[in-house]
Amino acid sequence: MTRSNAGHHEVVVIGAGISGIAAAIKLREAGLTGTDDVVILEKAETYGGTWRANTYPGCACDVPSGLYSFSFAPNSDWSRVYGTQPEILAYVDRVARDHGLEEVTRFGVEVLGASWDGEQWRVETTHGELTARFLVAAAGPWNEPKIPDLPGLADFPGEVWHSARWNHDFDLDGKRVAVIGTGASAVQFVPEIQEQVADLHLFQRTAHWVLPKVDHPVPAAEKWVKRRIPLLDRTLTAVEYAAMEGVGTAFHHPRPFMHALQKVGEAYLRAAVRDKALREKLTPDYLLGCKRILFSNSYLQSLTRPNVEVHATGVARVEGSTVVGADGSTAEVDAIILGTGFHILDMPVADRLRGADGRTLAEHWAGSPEAYLGTVVAGFPNAFLVLGPSLGTGHSSAFTIAEAQVAMIVDAVTTARGQGWAALAIRPETQTAYVDEVQAALAGTAYTATSCHSYYIDANGRNSFSWPWSTGALVRRVSRFNPADFEITRIPLVEPVETLEVTS
């Protein structure tokens, strides 16, 4: 097999967030410890991924912190039941450095493109070309902010920023602010900025269900006990896991479970918002779970304050300093904050990876992302996605999902190396059968309710985001590498060269 010697690695990992860190650590633990075995390419200057990028006020996890950590690096020192962004980032960074990843991470290196040349991956970066036998795309779906194409937005004379690119240099005190979008990020930062600003105009295209968040500071005594009695820590984590799986059961069986949970949301809204007109604006007209469930103990309450106006409409355009709603309502503001989400199902990395036929991953998908077990895609040999299509649950920890995928990836890579395989590629018929199975299982779940349109739904109207079974089923199935699912290319044997005896 012909290879470029300069800059060649067994595995190139794109991204140094939680999934890239997990992949690199487990590959190294499996024996890929040589200087040219594993390299992580990270466009930023530190670890953390989405927890590095999202620094908005109030940023925190919406999965209990006992579940939101690496299984191989448990942490008993979370300050709250739901960890905050600074401590999650510090934890992720610490795990990476404790496992020696600094020596294999190239910070400030962005991947511009990668293509399979028939024998290896050629990776173009801002610092030149590398080649790799295997490619692990761990950039994640919460990587690139989605900026709405609003007429006049580019000409707005004030400050405009996305929640994932928070402008910490702008002083919000006494300012008039418009917030566009009411998803998971806005639910966290709106209560934080509401007390600072003079006026807050919230443009809400669609109301969201909000449930109370069972969150509180963790007492020092509890942390002390958990550090010294690991069994107690594991027991509490098991209880949290069972509670989240209960939410998962409601997703999969809307009647009666999700309908019962929706009653909790209705009661919470009534208790938090006494004004009937405002409550009507904030009441969704779709089944709970059809969109991402939001958790907050302060969001709904902040919307009742006198300096807040909820515009129950999308935004039509921006005229000078005025934001104009689709219903004709207006707001003159000094700053616009976009809580408009991310390119999740149209993730940018899909435009940068070219498979065996020269087409990009985005061209293969044509608007509907699909991957076998969310990890491997037909036509892309020796390439793996972490946190890929059809693995979202709405209640599970991304750490759990990523670790399951990494287990499969490590098994695949080490098996290929041990067996002398040049390449492995998922069989197209295996991928198709799996996608059909997932789509059939999603029917009747809350994820596919017809009463709303969420980011679970792709450009072709198909749910390409959600996993239709339990977290336990995900771990058992996704973590397993089955060579029979793949087309295997073996490294050709080198024919011996016949030597001729030369006589003089």
From TrEMBL:
Pfam families the UniProt entry points to: Pyr_redox_3
InterPro entries hit by this protein: FAD-bind_Monooxygenase_sf, FAD/NAD-bd_sf
Residue spans crossing the bilayer: none
Superkingdom, natural source: Bacteria
PANTHER family (UniProt xref): FAD_NAD(P)-BINDING DOMAIN-CONTAINING PROTEIN-RELATED (PTHR42877:SF4), L-ORNITHINE N(5)-MONOOXYGENASE-RELATED (PTHR42877)
Protein name, entry field: NAD(P)/FAD-dependent oxidoreductase
Source species: Nocardioides antri
